[in-house]
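Lab manual, section 2.4: Encoding a predicted structure.

Procedure: take the sequence of the chain (235 residues), apply the prediction step described in section 2.3, and record the output as structure tokens. A sample record is shown.
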Amino acid sequence: MQGYIHSIETMGLVDGPGIRIVVFMQGCPLRCLFCHNPDTWNKESNYFVTSTDVVNEIRKYRKFIEAGGGVTLSGGEPLFQSQFTLDILKKCKKAAIHTCLDTSGTGYDLKYLDQILKYTDLIILDIKAINKSSYNKITGKNMDEFEYFLNLVQKHNKKLWLRQVIIPGINDNIEYIKKLKKYISKIKNVEKVELLPYHTMGIDKYKKLNLKYRLNGVLEMDKARCKQFEKILNG
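Recorded output:
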């Protein structure tokens, strides 16, 4: 099976438990306001490889990841290449490697989705917004795919880490954090919740790609304030 990847990070420490090999897949259906990797949007870019190539690369670092680590498929959006992602996950599980999917829960081919979840040990799920109108404003898409994916994850009883980017002027307020806490309280198997402070490190990529940066002028989120919100959320 062949597909497109953006890059591979060999010593990931924040994309799941332990030391991770992080495979950044190419292609994403969303156009999030805060995206800092617009170079991953188009699927047919960067490296065209086989799933065997990817897993062989992962195997090189087996001794680093076998003590509580594993592989994380990120992006872009790994579900955007559903069949390719499934093949990598199958091969990793056959090799007894812990698998994690870092996803927005969108862009999938429905016929592969149950199998993808079968071979995934942990889901890191990006929450873009908690209502349909805000979701559309932030991502440019409707929320239906995300909601279907989350419901299916619950049916499969999968472990979840949840993440949300906090953006000044959009969701950096106590009222939103309280609503987010209530939203998350209805989701089962949540092991961890993280709030990620919005940053502007991707702006140069937009310039190079001649793309408009839609949050131009928005300051980076204060990290200390973001941590305070996180304490409220997890309190």
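Check your result against the sample. Residues 28 and 41 are 5 Å apart (CA to CA).
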